[in-house]
Amino acid sequence: GAGVSQSPSNKVTEKGKDVELRCDPISGHTALYWYRQRLGQGLEFLIYFQGNSAPDKSGLPSDRFSAERTGESVSTLTIQRTQQEDSAVYLCASSPGTGPETQYFGPGTRLLVL
Amino acid sequence: AQSVTQLDSQVPVFEEAPVELRCNYSSSVSVYLFWYVQYPNQGLQLLLKYLSGSTLVESINGFEAEFNKSQTSFHLRKPSVHISDTAEYFCAVISGGSEKLVFGKGTKLTVNP
């Protein structure tokens, strides 16, 4: 596709339920990032995938958060036992490879935990 | 750890006025600097970036930013804004061999007629 796509665009869930968010990066991009943007805050780094290397999970806020990526394609971010403080916009970005390159962002998934 | 400060959360200006959006970062070790913009109801997109070379970088729509190592700043400026510049602007930094972007909290620029 032409850009990074994310699904769903909006998700409303009840506290305690699990949610799965999907990201399709730009074809050929080896690097993929997940960020979170809570209301009134900047973007917080969550996790980074680069090719077949072990992901950098240093930004995941708790063990309820996990992410997977199959090769250099789709990634899923899973939040287990959601809490109200997980409500945020979750953004995915991809870039061509290593180095300080431009990251291309998807439109985000707006998650609301009731 | 690297941090990015955008002191102004909101900046209202009149059309055709000059504007400066401030950005300061905490560590000057091997930094790469970015400004991203988010127009209403749109995704985040790159406005301009500094990787190396000339410390003054420009965007195609008239914005410019200057990397100032001594002041650890990367302020964004435009001499004359348009209503279409209304958006939220985020300053971001990659530093120290990391691949992660560290973002500021954003500045909402509102251009009034």
Seen as an oligomer or otherwise, the chain set is: heterodimer
Number of helices of chain B: 0
- Class by alpha and beta content of chain A: mainly beta
Overall mean pLDDT of chain B = 92
Order of H and E elements of chain A: EEEEEEEEEE
Low-confidence stretches of chain A: none
Number of helices of chain A: 0
Query: What share of the residues of chain A lie within helices?
Result: under 10%
Shape of chain B: globular
Q: What kind of sheet is the major sheet of chain B?
A: 6 strands, mixed
Describe it for me?
The complex is a heterodimer of chains A (114) and B (113). Chain A is mostly beta strands and 114 residues long. Chain A is 0% helix and 46% strand. Chain A has no helices and ten strands. Chain A has strands at 5-7, 10-13, 19-24, 31-37, 43-50, 65-69, 75-79, 88-95, 104-105, 109-113. In chain A, strands 2, 4, 5, 8, 9 and 10 form a six-stranded mixed beta sheet that branches. A four-stranded antiparallel beta sheet of chain A has the order 1-3-7-6, with no helix packed on it. In chain B, strand 7 and strand 8 (64-68) form a beta hairpin. The mean pLDDT of chain B is 92. Chain B has no helices and twelve strands. Helix content of chain B is 0%, strand content 50%. Chain B has 113 residues and is an all-beta fold. The interface between A and B is medium-sized, with 25 and 23 residues.
Q: What's the arrangement of secondary structure elements?
A:
The complex is a heterodimer of chains A (114) and B (113).
Chain A: E1 5-7, E2 10-13, E3 19-24, E4 31-37, E5 43-50, E6 65-69, E7 75-79, E8 88-95, E9 104-105, E10 109-113
Parallel strand pairs in A: 2-10
Antiparallel strand pairs in A: 1-3, 3-7, 4-5, 4-8, 6-7, 8-9, 8-10
Chain B: E1 4-5, E2 10-14, E3 19-21, E4 24-25, E5 32-38, E6 44-50, E7 56-58, E8 64-68, E9 73-78, E10 87-94, E11 102-103, E12 107-112
Parallel strand pairs in B: 2-12
Antiparallel strand pairs in B: 1-4, 3-9, 5-6, 5-10, 7-8, 8-9, 10-11, 10-12
